[in-house]
Amino acid sequence: MLRWGDFDVWQSVGGIFRNSALVYAAAAVELLGGLAMQSARTARLGALLLGGISVVYLLFCLPPIARHPLHYFNWGNLFEVFSQLAAALIVLGAAPSRGPSWPSPAARIGYLCFSLCVVSFTLGQLFYLPLTASFVPRLIPPGPMFWAIATTVAFGLAAAALWSGRAALLASKLLTGMLGGFAVLVWLPAIVANPHSLGNWTEAAQTVAIAAAAWVVVDYLRPYRYAASSARA
């Protein structure tokens, strides 16, 4: 955002406030929120800032959906942003004083919202399978279409695990790793090949942000599972 003076295209607001002070204000909020998330003492403040800016971005995702409600690409954009709000809700809902066996309602809502986002990721890849395959470097065996199908299935299995609660912690860990793999194997080479492309940087940042949201889900599930197992013992 600071480099191009424009909102990320995936946030459905590109061009609306081009070269506006609002672009830099939004970038400042994101930077401050990200820095605040690095400390346990200020994590909730960071989540509040990032969650708040995500709500703003979500509002900008609605007009394209209203104009073309059957175009799933617009819905995909919305759920990509929604995953960031879901992670912020989980962080905001963290309540150490209650103990790990008592997740707050806000954290639970955030978890369910993220699970819904994973369903959207599955559908997005399924509906645009050839496009998904086009992003996979051809040098990675056995081929782009194989990995497009395999990762779509992986998203679907992760969604089922998160919704059912069966192997949800493992699924969230594997999901985090898969998304991290996308960033390293797909978007890092794309940035190296064309560092002046806003689209490449946008997709890379988007992928890392969603991977971070999945990591938040891992942190949410780990103590809860430990507490549940202790209670059964």
Task: Please tell me about this protein's structure.
By secondary structure, this protein is an all-alpha fold. It has one domain. 75% of the residues lie in helices and 0% in strands. The chain contains 8 helices and no strands. Helix 1 crosses helix 2 and helix 3 packs antiparallel against helix 4. The N and C termini lie far apart (51 Å).
Most strands sheet: none
Compute the number of strand runs: 0
Low-confidence stretches: 97-101, 226-233
Strand content is: under 5%
Number of domains: 1
Radius of gyration, in angstroms, nearest whole number: 18 Å
Per DSSP, the total helix count is 8
Shape designation: globular
* Overall pLDDT: 85
> Cα distance, first to last residue?
51 Å
H/E element string? HHHHHHHH
Structural class: mainly alpha
Provide the helix percentage: over 70%
List the helices and strands and how they pair.
Elements: H1 21-36, H2 43-67, H3 72-92, H4 105-127, H5 129-135, H6 144-164, H7 168-193, H8 198-232
Helix pairs in contact: 1-2, 2-3, 3-4, 3-8, 4-6, 5-6, 6-7, 7-8
Give the key terms:
233 residues, 8 helices
Provide a short characterization of the protein structure:
By secondary structure, this protein is mainly alpha-helical. It contains eight helices and no strands.
